[in-house]
Each structure stands twice: as C-alpha cells, then as structure tokens.
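Appendix B. Extra example for self-study. Work through it before the problem class; the solution is given directly after the inputs so you can check yourself.
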Amino acid sequence: MSDRISHQGLRGKVMSADDAAQLIKPGDQIGFSGFTGAGYPKEMPGAIARRITEATERGEEFRINVLTGASTAPELDGVLAETGGVNWRAPYQSDPTLRGKINDGTTYYSDIHLSHSGQMTTQGFFGPVDVAIVEAVRIKEDGSIVPSSSVGNSVNYLQAAERIIIEVNEWQSAELEGMHDIWLPGLPPARQIIPIEESGQRIGKAAIDIDPAKVVAVVETNAPDRNSPFKPLDEDSKRIAGHLIDFFEHEVAQGRLPENLLPLQSGVGNIANAVLAGLLDSKFENLTSYTEVIQDGMIELLDNGTMSVASATSFALSPDAADRMNEKASDYAKKIILRPQEVSNHAEVIRRLGVISCNGLIEADIYGNVNSTHIMGTKMMNGLGGSGDFTRNAYISTFVSPSTAKGGDISAIVPMVSHVDHTEHDVMVIITEQGLADLRGLAPRQRAKVVIDKCAHPDYKEALTEYVERAEKQPKVGMHTPHDLREALGWHQRFLETGSMKA
Amino acid sequence: MSDRISHQGLRGKVMSADDAAQLIKPGDQIGFSGFTGAGYPKEMPGAIARRITEATERGEEFRINVLTGASTAPELDGVLAETGGVNWRAPYQSDPTLRGKINDGTTYYSDIHLSHSGQMTTQGFFGPVDVAIVEAVRIKEDGSIVPSSSVGNSVNYLQAAERIIIEVNEWQSAELEGMHDIWLPGLPPARQIIPIEESGQRIGKAAIDIDPAKVVAVVETNAPDRNSPFKPLDEDSKRIAGHLIDFFEHEVAQGRLPENLLPLQSGVGNIANAVLAGLLDSKFENLTSYTEVIQDGMIELLDNGTMSVASATSFALSPDAADRMNEKASDYAKKIILRPQEVSNHAEVIRRLGVISCNGLIEADIYGNVNSTHIMGTKMMNGLGGSGDFTRNAYISTFVSPSTAKGGDISAIVPMVSHVDHTEHDVMVIITEQGLADLRGLAPRQRAKVVIDKCAHPDYKEALTEYVERAEKQPKVGMHTPHDLREALGWHQRFLETGSMKA
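Solution. Structure tokens for the complete assembly:
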C-alpha cells in the first residue's frame, strides 16, 4: 500500500474503484474534484459508469447528478456521459460526449459562475451532496487531504458531503504539498473578509481538513491528468496578442495603468496562451497574475522572471510542462498558489486587486454584448466558466477572438448576439486579429461604429454597417440601441439554413 | 449670508447661480451630486441651461457631458435635456425629457453599473472631470462639505474635478450631519479592504474633504428635493409581496436563511415599496437593509422597529416622509447610514453580507434572462441602476413585476428578451402577481417550465408553451436552450406592428 496514506484508519478503507463504486446509489448527487482537466479522480468515474451500465442493462434506472470544479476529462465527464446516466451537471464542462448529451436533451446542465458554484452548494441551493470524490496527493496523519493539481470546489464538496471517497494518485508529485492555500470565507451572516491584498498572499492551510468518519473508501491510482499540448501560435493569435499589448502600453502611457500593469487573468485556450507568449517578448516586467488556470504561457513568464507570482485554482498544462511541474513542484510553490475557486474567482478580491481580465468569446454584437456559451443561440458549447466572475469585477475587461470562424462562414461580430453571457454594461474591450475596440464610456451607437470599424472582418463590415443604417430607419425604433427585430438574429438563421452567415 | 458657510475663504465665493454658470465652458464634463431625486443641485443646472440656450441662439455650439450619482429631477436632467445641449450622459437617468433625447439620438447615454461609475471616473476612463457641482447641507470651517440627502458619486467627482461649485441648500436639515459615512477604497494596486461586516457599521468621516482652492463658486439655495408620493398599494403589488414573503418563510424553514433573513436590498418604485409594506405586516423581526435607496416603506420598517438599521446612498421619499426626515434627521441618523454609491453598491460588501436583492424588470424570458432597460429592444427606459451591482452578488437575487403591461397587450414573460441586462446565470427568482419561479440550480429547459407555469399571465401561457414546443422541433436546434430564431423576437415585432403581443 502507498506510503502516501498516513492516517491509520483510512489505510483500512483502501479498496478497488469497482468496490468503491458499489457505495454509489441511484440518484446520488456527487461532488467531484477537478478543474480544466487537472486534479479530477481518475478511476472512480469509470467504475461508476460500469455500475450505471450494468444497472441499465438490468432495466434499472440509475442516474446521477454531477458537480465538479470545472471541466474534467474523458475519464470523468466522457465515461459518465456515455452511459446516458448523467441527469444534471454543473457548473462547467467541455467534454464532447457530455456536450452531445446536453444538446440532445439527455442531460440537464446548469451553467453557473465558477465562484458561485461552491457557495451555492454550501448554501443548500442544489440539495444535499451525497458523495464527494476527490483526488489527493496524499492523506496526512490527521486525515487531512493534500489536493493535487487543482483545488476547485473540493473543500465545499468535502464539507457538504455525507460520504467521502478519496483517490490517492501516485502520478501527482508529492512536492505539490505547500502550493495550495486552503481557506473559505464561510456563509453569511458570519462570512469573513477575504484578507488577500496581493496576488501572492497566503491566508490558509496547505491541506483540506475533513471528517475521517465520513470517508467510505480510499482508492489508489497512478494516472496522469488530461494535459493536452497547445497548438503552435498562429498569425491571428499573434496579432490579437499584439493589439492587447499595444493597448496595455497605451494605458500605461496615459497613466491609467501602473508600469507593471495590474494582476492578469487569462482564460483557457490557445489565444489566451498566445497573449501570455506575447508578454514574454514585451517590455513589461514584474507582472503578477490573479487567475483561475495556469497554462504553459504563464509558466514561461514565471520561469524567465517576467512574472513574479501567479494565483489560480488549477493547472492546464501540456504534457511536457506537466512533467516539468512534477519535477520542480516545490520550486514552483514559491511563485504559484492554488486556492479554492470560490477565492481564486471571488468578486471581492478581483475588484480589490483591479484584475485585468482576458477571455475568449463565441460572438460579440455591435453594441458590445458577448456570447461565450451558445452556438447559434441554442447549442451549449462549454459554458460560462469563470469569465463572468472576472469580467464583471475587472478593472479592465477584455475579450479576444478571431473575427471569423468556420472558414469565414461565421462572423464573430453580429448584429445581435444569439445569447448573452456578458452584457454591454460589462464588456470594455473587444479584440480580434483585425484590431481593438475600446468601448469604455461609449453609448451603444458609438460602440457600433468602433466595433464594426476595428473588429469586424472585411467580408462582413459592409453588411454590418448596412444593418445599422436599416435599423435606424425602422418605424418606432429607439435610437439608443437601434435594431430591426425581424433581422437581428437573421445572420444566425441564415447560417442554420445555408451553412454561411454571408448573404 | 447663510450661517451654513463656515469657511471664511469660501464665504467670499458666494455668487448667484447665473454668475456661477458663466464659469462653465462649452464641452465641459460636469459631475453633479444627486441620486434618485435627492441631493442634486437645484439652481446651477437651470442657470447652465439658460447659458446653453443663449449660446445656441447666438449660433454657438455649447454642449456638455453630464455625470451624476443616478436619476435627478426636472430641475437638472429636465432643463438641461430641454436645451438639446447634453452630448453624453452617465450613469443613470429617469427623466422624460432626457429619455426623449436619448431615444431620438440627440444624447449619447452610457448606462453603467452605479457602483462602477465613480470608480471608472477616478480611473480616468471617461476623461477629465472639468467641474463638480455638489449640493451640501453646509460647508465646515475646514472647507469640508456635509452632503445632503444623497452621497452618490460626489466624493469621486469632487476629487477628480478641476473646478468645484457648491450649492448650500437651507431646505435640507442641518441635522443630516452625522448620517453620512464618507469612505472610498481608493485605486489598485493600493485599493483597500472595505471593512464593513455589518450593514450598520460606520467606517469613515461625516463630511467630504475637498481642496478649497478648487472651489470657484458657492451658491445659496432653499429648495426641496424631487420627492414624489407613492401610489396606493394595488392588488398586484400586494400579491407579489405576498409571494416573496412566503418564499422567505419557506427558505427559513428549510434552513437556507436565518430567521431575521439577511440584509435586504430593494429597488426603487411602487412594487418594491409594496414588498417593504408587506414585511411590515409579516412575522419577521430584526431585519436589516444594505441597499442603495431608502423609500417610505423602509422608513416605516425602521419606525416600528421591524428593521434595526438601513445602509444606503440616498433617499427617495414622499413629500410627507421627507418632511418627517427633515424634522427628525438626527434621530434617524442612529439607524440610517448614507455611503458613497461605490460602497453602498459594492460587490465586496454585498457578497460578504449575503444581501437578498429585489429589483423590478421590464421583461423576463422563459429561460431566465432579464431586461431591465429597453422597451422593445431599442428604446431606453431609465437604465440599469444598481440592479446589476446587487443581483450579481446577491445571496438570493429576486425580480418582481406584474405579468403584463399596457392593459394586457404586453407580456412581461416572453420567448426571448429583446435586451439582456441580467443573464440566466444571475437570476435566481422571478415573481409576478401570478406566482414565484425559483430557478436556482435549474437548467434552461427546466426553467422554461417553471417560469411559464408560475409567472406568465394566463392570456400568454398557451402561446409560450407552444413556442417551446415549436422551438424544440427546429432543425439543428440545441436542446439546451431551444429557440426558433425566426420567431424568438416575434412578440416584440408584433407589438410594434399591431400594438399588442397577442397573436
């Protein structure tokens, strides 16, 4: 048995994943660890999926509700979704199989701000958490758990759950111990001030206290996180990064940002990674980050000293970077802090520190509303994630995207977005490879001019301008936000009918 | 001269409003005091309007940008809008004349979260503030200003402005001194923790420090606030209040709220006032409020002891209640605190205290998105106000509205809202006179069932249900948020064409 299980009583609970899965009941609501493919349990979900499939084959109803930190991996969301046994899922996912089940109506998906999901669970808004299944680096003598490559909502789920199952994963470096900062503000009326005044400040403990009496099983695993490689930087991503860095330089010159900027938040994905890579070659120094996920680009900034400290709740690394992290985790723990997502994404800290947010979008409209979640207004892509947590409390909120998708058949700039995740009141800057639209202080009609001029692809500029002109001539139109309601969603309908937004 | 001007140097700056208006230049950006018709300067706007009109008649261009706390009154927004000389306005208004200018394209309006507007001014996002024009109860010996019936953004504007004009209003009770709590968190990277842990906690000073050298004029006035009477409670408002109070009782019974609830925020208007009146007759005790505006209903709760303390940034009282306030201001100062709107509406405090928010809506859609600002997608009604500040950080967010408007020709529940101010991710509870929809933890299709069942007017229920059924059958539809994009905004278009949403 692994020497990573130091609590005597819990050593007696070690069993196989399939035996532990027998402790899961139909209808259970399960809180899993895991955030952006890091720190999720590797074997239990598969064992539960087998149990669901067997029950279904016997003609029994066996469905579960699944809570996590954020997205996981094929070994969690994928295998569970495959069974058709996921009744309800929150707060974020990015798995192709699960996405299919959400969009065909098999699975109900509640797309919740990541910083609110743990709090809402603790507040009892989703009903009881029956089981928490959490990956750990090790179990300490007192039963407390050292989390692995993410913290996510594990603390909330471990506190709320009736039963606990721990996966101790030998693949995760034991040196991650000390990187985590475990602290939650509690519930009102006694919710505490979050005393973080700098990204790098530690306020909590290195491990999660649990009640060992609630642990019903401990499973030993040795398996890597989902870690997938980033794509090589393409020209569009480099241009987007260039526009953003120019903007930063301009804001510093205008005295609206300090020379080392303010703490950066960077969404997940290739463009965000390109922005970080762009900062590597910029003149900026002593950067800090208060974000939710640490990607390769941020590790490089930490490695070369451009960034001094990064606070997050999870990693999302390439396999190579994950190997380096595992080798040098105790070194990185001096510059990296992993917090519960309720704290990494908390309005209070984000607004206090003045975080500069940078997130992707699916589409933006001419008036500055952003859709981050829905394809053509009805199909869920991934979810909101932490984009709302950061955007709505940011000192400066930015969104990045190529100006077209599907080989040019979709314009990322449309007359009216088909779903709104970030309102005109929260979106300050939109950037495409075409340019940067600074919307701060502008009224909707002023925004339309700037968005079309700076961000839209040349193939769509004329059509957008003509839309505005027609909208302004509609009978009974308000000139605050002119629209032709018959045509506002027409680009999306055309795409559904013809495969292109082009007329 | 008034004995309310105790600073010797500033006594020498006393002049008429018309003389002071000569100090305003074309193109000036002016930050006015004032919030929900309380504490705005009474004479300077009229004098500036006269100056604009005279210049315009001479053929000169004279336009200004107007910042305030929130809505003001005919004597400010009304007279300035009448001239056509308001180029740009932020962050909130409710004036009929100004609304007309916004919707006919004369005035650009930037509809900004109230808690962000002061901060964004200080951050320099709107350019320099040329003049601050602020109403005061008195000017103290050291030149500091005792604000009147609102605090709003006055501190930010006084700090940012190049020139300052003070209106000292004898109508406002001198006993208001001591009710205000002047404190701002500053700017990042040195922004401070807001140390408020209870609604009633005072953290600042009773007056606003200014640089007397920046004061170019002091004007003496004696005029009441806009105070308008509330309508008598109608049956719909009473039913809405009843549903909300039943919900509170249920949440307490389920252990999800303490017996004295959590601090209440209540939007402005008759329904919000009805909810407060409903609490007066309920079994709840020891209530507290952390809100932006104190209306008559809240004063009654404080008077009869049902509520122990109320924190806000402004009053919005009937003439009778305003008279009582002026008579007993020093008594009320023990239970009422007026803060800068950056603090009264701040994400950090709202989330820490666990505020229960209650705001009106123009329309909600079946999936839980809320439109608070736009009529038929294009015309600005008033603006977002503080609804976003509170909703997005609330412990429980609620929205209240009658289920129909315009004698039944408009349904407040529609297939898709024509503008989104509060996304599906932030709206927890919707209440009409028909009933209450608790949307917490529900996926969009689940929400549609509950919203139609509980909130829609019987005249529109069948049409909404049929819409969902048709939407679910659309080719290529995603079953996460089913829509027929050709029909989603069809109810609004029908209203524009026929005067009714009814088919």
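Self-check: Chain A has a mean pLDDT of 97. If your reasoning did not lead you there, revisit section 3.
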